[in-house]
């Protein structure tokens, strides 16, 4: 069962942003061919994507948060990620996404969907995660290991036998009812196809403009 927006909002802002940042960065960065946090954040596109997505995520909880110093919180989260470069490579951050994404990303995604707000940054993230689970190689043709202890054999069968949207039917996401939001499903499918055809890096460059349309002030 995924965490609710109310439960997430009770976390201290800095901790919430750090946990969200881990999930936001891990899969796009790994698919782009990076293996360390430091290398990934040095990439301008990934850095912009991370900052924009964190701003959007925090705004969904802004009215419930007592800490309004968003720039400071995001800066601290990024600095913390950088400090983990040696002992916590991206392979560690990407572990167990089936547990982390429902806890730190789904509540914000559902909140925005229910309010009719744009969700392209989160559709992109789930598309990257879905591709990560099934591709096995990154943009550079390098193999990586998927470590998902929360996924069951039934979940893997769903992924193997379905189309790209089958990710939304695995146990981690099924109860969220994401298929009931046609606009989200359309965006998600589009990003999955883009990543499969053109790679993560190209797709991210093409979609950053859509991210900034969601929250223009997040483009700095």
Number of domains: 1
Pattern of helices and strands: HHHHHHHHHHHH
Shape field: globular
Helix content: 55-70%
By CATH's scheme, which homologous superfamily applies? N-(1-d-carboxylethyl)-l-norvaline Dehydrogenase, domain 2
Question: Which CATH class applies here?
Answer: Mainly Alpha
Average predicted local confidence, pLDDT? 83
Structural class: mainly alpha
CATH fold assignment: N-(1-d-carboxylethyl)-l-norvaline Dehydrogenase, domain 2
- SS field, number of helical segments: 12
CATH architecture field: Orthogonal Bundle
Protein name: Mannitol dehydrogenase C-terminal domain-containing protein
Pfam family, one: Mannitol_dh_C
Domain Mannitol dehydrogenase C-terminal: 13-190
Organism: Spirosoma pollinicola
Topology:
Layout: H1 5-9, H2 13-31, H3 37-41, H4 44-59, H5 70-83, H6 90-93, H7 97-104, H8 106-114, H9 120-135, H10 153-161, H11 182-198, H12 200-214
Task: Write a brief caption for the model.
The protein has helices at residues 5-9, 13-31, 37-41, 44-59, 70-83, 90-93, 97-104, 106-114, 120-135, 153-161, 182-198, 200-214.
Structure description:
With 220 residues, the protein is mostly helical. It has one domain (5-218): N-(1-d-carboxylethyl)-l-norvaline Dehydrogenase, domain 2, CATH 1.10.1040.10. The chain has helices at residues 5-9, 13-31, 37-41, 44-59, 70-83, 90-93, 97-104, 106-114, 120-135, 153-161, 182-198, 200-214. Helix 2 packs across helix 5 (70-83) and helix 2 crosses helix 9. The longest helix is centred in the first third of the chain and has 19 residues, at 13-31. The radius of gyration is 16 Å and the shape is globular. The protein starts with a helix and ends in a 6-residue tail after the last helix. Mean pLDDT is 83; it is low at 1-10 and 63-67.
